[in-house]
Amino acid sequence: MDVDLARTFLTITETANFGKAAKALNVTQSTVSARIKTLEELLGQPLFLRSKTGTTLTTAGAKFKSSAETMIRVWEQARQQVGIPSDFQSMISIGGEMTLWDQLLMKWIPWMRSSLPDVAIRAEVMQADSLMQRLAEGSVDIGVLYLPSHRSGLEVEILLDEELVMVSTSTGTATPGHRSYVFVDWGTAFRLDHDNAFPNADTPALTVTPSHFGLNYILENGGAGYFPRRLTERAVSEGRLHQVPDTPQFHHRVHMIYDSDRKDERFNTALQGLRFVAAREGEH
Questions:
Q1: Which fold has domain 3-80?
Q2: Looking at residue 107, what is its pLDDT?
Q3: Tens-place pLDDT, residues 50-60
Q4: Backbone dihedral region of 163: left (phi > 0), alpha (psi from -120 to 50 degrees) or beta?
Q5: Which end of the chain is more exposed for a tag (fewer CB within 10 A), N or C?
Q6: Which residues lie below 8 Å from residue 212, measured CB to CB, with a gap of 6+?
Q7: CATH 1.10.10.10 in the chain, residues?
């Protein structure tokens, strides 16, 4: 089966619209329709139901979805392996949300280069939705993010449990809505928890991503914001920061996502390296 047929099918399931799928794939809508017609003829079953509100999967389409994801994942992995330079035995691609790079991935990469010098690494910063899609397709081998969605063929593992606390350079008022408050964007899960905890807060005067910029800004210019407790402990002990009393604390888990069927030794070592780095971070 043509891999483009499976990729087109999956893009429609994500967008729930033939026109949006065509735009995402950079082809015409008639091409998308023709591919799905060919796919339905090959399978002998209709895959989508169309209506004015969008496109939904038929029973046959829902059953085919996991097979299509597996097909794309195997193809992408094969394509990557064929393109590996002769100096390396294999390649591992990893993606992570911006706020997790300083914390985990920038420490994992040197560990990998030392432990597995014959493995080429491709590392990318991605938004959670895009990362999950790339994992499902197989064009990314390992994902690190806060709020994963569960996909067929992918294993979700907890790496680290973060405790986010509000700290301030002063002992005065510094809650959301105050001009000194800096909203540090820790991702979708944090934004949801923050909005629920502070439903009436005004739009912050300053929003910062990535997170380490926020901490540096506050220490140099004054202000308050949410940060992992472990990152603020030293500054708190030195009196440069103060934990803001009577404010909610948020617990956010960092997850590692990978192909549950992949068993090769180097890949397992790469996963173990992330577990090791996360365990060391959790001890700080």
A1: Arc Repressor Mutant, subunit A (1.10.10)
A2: 92
A3: 888 789 999 99
A4: beta
A5: C
A6: 102
A7: 3-80
CATH architecture label of 87-284? 3-Layer(aba) Sandwich (3.40)
pTM of model > 0.70 = no
Place of tokens 């065509």: 22
Identify whether the C-beta of residue 145 lies closer than 8 Å to the C-beta of residue 161: no
Q: What percent of the chain has pLDDT over 70?
A: 95
pLDDT band at 179 (very low <50, low <70, confident <90, very high): confident
Q: Enter the tokens of residue 173.
A: 């008022």
| Residue found by looking up tokens 């990557």 in the block | 80
DSSP strand E in the chain: where? 48-51, 54-57, 90-96, 119-125, 142-145, 154-168, 182-184, 206-208, 224-228, 242-243, 250-259
The mean pLDDT value for 227-232 works out to: 85
**Cα 103 from Cα 162, distance rounded (Å):** 11
d(CA 120, CA 112): 9
Quick one: which H or E segment has residue 175? none
pLDDT score, position 251: 86
Backbone dihedral region for residue 26 (phi beyond 0: left; psi -120 to 50: alpha; all else: beta): left
Helices of type H across 1-144: 3-15, 18-25, 29-43, 59-82, 106-115, 128-137
